Task: structure prediction
Amino acid sequence: MDYSAIQKLENLLLVSVPRDLVDDDVIRMRRDILQAVRKYNSQIVLLDFSQVDICDSFFGRFIYSTAQMTKLMGAKIILSGLQDAVIETMVELGMALPDVDAVLDLDSALALSRAQAVQGSLVEGAASGPPEA
Amino acid sequence: MMTAGHDTLFFRIKDPMDVAKARREGMQMSMGLGFNQADATKIAVVISELGRNIVNYAGSGTITVIARSETNGKKYMRIIADDKGPGIPDVERVLAGGYTTSNGLGLGISGSKKLVDEFSIHSEVGKGTTVTAVKWLVK
Result:
């Protein structure tokens, strides 16, 4: 299955999750995400679900485990582009994924990541600046 | 006058690719019968969860998906997942959720039950399991 869709976008790692993922693809994809996080020193991994129209509990576990793994690398998972029907089904199935953040679309994700980048540079600036007299 | 009838899809399930095919075609069939995107998604997820259980616990089995129109105009989808696997020793516990020996979230059966209108499990240890799920089309 083709999922060559892991790209660096500003300080985001953008992952376009394919429409149908089977088990082997999921494990391969998760490893590729971890490698890319290390390569680009990504702080935010955006899982774009806009192509996905069926999200079962195995998919849920993929999201959850990827979030846990990237957290150990200092990166945060954000879901984006979940379709209404997918959201309704996930919640009714009991898969609300409380520890995983989401945004509506890529625009919102970019805005969030830019805000975080500005905040990060301010904090960095304060830490490395000269001590106040 | 309404005409009664049904269409049937039959899938042999032995690996995740078979499950992916069954859920995709089941979803298309549901939409063909008149289900909206959200309810067709739920039917697809139920097929996926039941198919995954077959692969994980029984190794192989079958899934039958039936789109049915009755003479009174009512329509429903019926999903039958059948295997000759080890069976479920404690069906009640599985229905209650959070019980898994495999790699899901423990939501497969208990979650599927919430997505449909009728849900039943017939299981005998050492003989196999048959799960039947029905979702009615509400206009």
Summary: The radius of gyration of chain B is 15 Å.
